[in-house]
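Thread amino acids onto this structure.
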């Protein structure tokens, strides 16, 4: 079937910012999303997708740039897909992120809100990340501008790419020569490995054929500038490359490798081998030490993570006699961060290696009132689990972008803690989950935190307090048998789409 001819729209003014770093405007009562624009830009837009209520497009020409537009710092801007908001002043980035949280909580959550606190901006807007992952490719992606500038594809070397995936294209890798998300050491390591491997004739991975030797490169760093490097091979490693890395970059104190023969890139289920140095790096927060391994989750903006955890700890309002549940605990950072202000802390995390790190982190810091469990949250957290580990007075939630599973929310509401602190990296799923808890909990504080400058991502910390019995009776709960102290309220949950009873 032949594709529709989609229009070229000329002299269109960009009017706002949408989710995921896209800009937004309206044309003939239809919403139009377009990347790499800022409000006030006058642009020509080629429509690439058209639905009944919205369109998507790309900028063909900037007719008149917005007065607020900035020059991007990175040479790869517009191609790599990251750091889309480089062209927007940081103050404007923060304003739009604040508005994004308000919009999600009101439009999706439809819950009563207090005044939202001003967003906490990041101290660093460049070189703030402590982790980056790059992909090897036997054929790097080239833009039409690059091909035209070289006078044709035959004049361009499109082999041996090492960089980031093009957005929404798992098999297309943009070769990265500079990245401002980490200090310059990341550029020297990545570019050095690429050229050395190429000089040896070592093959880079092909995602379609599942052939090639070098697959991915993962860098992690700590506040001291010490580096962990994980080299992922598709087959047995060439030790010449590993020796080159060891001898060339003394900043790397943990040099590891993985042999991954699977079709996907994840290494969570793969064995990690130590080639040189130790199997971890250490991070510090206040007077606490944290062990970070190759599979550990740790907030990627170290300085801002500290600000985030301080807000979460204060929101928990611990007095010293509480049982605290830290759900989605990762390496136990929040759990250990709060442990000295609680009677007991219980942490749950999906990744077993992260839980082992969490236990070590408690031991390193002389903390003896924590207990950690590994497993899928919806399988681990149950009424029996609560009975075994004690009724939680406070629960801290820090789930992945998908949010909290409904079964987990059911258990939380039956446990009925006095306070819930919900830390989210996705305000949309957070708003959805808060709506499910609205019958029993009211929002008492909302604190946005910018963890990822120059992107459309934002963190939101929402503090919930249990409603009084009278307040609860004014709402219909989505869950059956919600426990409020010793009283059981019999209610029903219906699937709105299918009108089917779920419980």
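Threaded sequence (503 positions):
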């Amino acid at each position: 079937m032949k594709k529709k001819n989609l229009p070229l729209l000329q002299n269109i003014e960009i009017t706002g910012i949408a989710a995921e770093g896209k800009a937004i405007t309206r044309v003939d009562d239809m919403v139009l999303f377009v990347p790499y624009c800022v409000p006030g830009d006058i642009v020509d837009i080629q429509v690439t997708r058209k639905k009944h209520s919205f369109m998507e497009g790309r900028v063909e020409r900037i007719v008149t740039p917005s007065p607020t537009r900035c020059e991007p710092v990175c040479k790869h801007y517009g191609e790599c897909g990251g750091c889309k908001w480089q062209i927007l002043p940081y103050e404007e980035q923060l304003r739009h992120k604040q508005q994004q949280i308000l919009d999600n909580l009101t439009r999706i959550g439809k819950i009563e809100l207090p005044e939202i606190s001003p967003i906490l901006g990041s101290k660093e807007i460049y070189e703030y990340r402590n982790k980056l992952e790059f992909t090897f490719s036997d054929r790097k992606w080239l833009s039409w501008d690059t091909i035209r500038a070289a006078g044709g594809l035959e004049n361009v070397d499109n082999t041996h790419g090492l960089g980031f995936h093009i957005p929404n294209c798992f098999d297309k890798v943009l070769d990265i020569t500079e990245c401002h998300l980490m200090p310059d050491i990341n550029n020297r390591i990545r570019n050095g490995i690429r050229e050395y491997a190429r000089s040896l004739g070592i093959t880079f991975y092909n995602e379609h054929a599942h052939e090639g030797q070098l697959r991915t490169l993962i860098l992690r760093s700590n506040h001291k500038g010490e580096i962990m490097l994980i080299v992922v091979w598709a087959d047995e490693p060439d030790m010449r490359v590993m020796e080159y890395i060891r001898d060339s970059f003394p900043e790397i104190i943990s040099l590891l490798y993985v042999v991954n023969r699977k079709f996907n890139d994840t290494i969570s289920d793969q064995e990690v081998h130590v080639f040189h140095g130790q199997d971890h790096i250490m991070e510090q927060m206040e007077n606490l030490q944290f062990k970070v391994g190759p599979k550990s989750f740790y907030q990627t903006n170290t300085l801002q993570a500290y600000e985030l955890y301080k807000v979460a700890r204060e929101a928990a309002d611990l007095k010293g006699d509480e049982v605290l549940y830290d759900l989605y605990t990762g390496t136990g950072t929040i759990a250990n961060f709060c442990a000295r202000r609680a009677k007991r802390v219980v942490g749950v995390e999906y990744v077993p290696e992260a839980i082992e790190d969490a236990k070590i982190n408690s031991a390193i810091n002389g903390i003896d009132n924590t207990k950690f469990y590994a497993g899928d949250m919806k399988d681990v957290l149950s009424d029996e689990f609560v009975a075994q580990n004690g009724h939680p007075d406070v629960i801290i939630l820090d789930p992945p972008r998908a949010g909290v599973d409904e079964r987990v929310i059911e258990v939380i509401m039956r446990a009925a803690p006095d306070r819930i602190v919900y830390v989210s990296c996705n305000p949309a799923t957070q708003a959805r989950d808060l709506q499910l808890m609205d019958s029993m909990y009211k929002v008492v504080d909302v604190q946005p935190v910018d963890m990822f400058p120059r992107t459309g991502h934002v963190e939101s910390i929402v503090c919930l307090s249990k409603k009084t019995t009278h307040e609860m009776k004014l709402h219909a709960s989505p869950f059956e048998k919600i426990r409020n102290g010793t009283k059981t309220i019999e209610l029903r949950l219906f699937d709105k789409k299918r009108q089917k009873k779920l419980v």
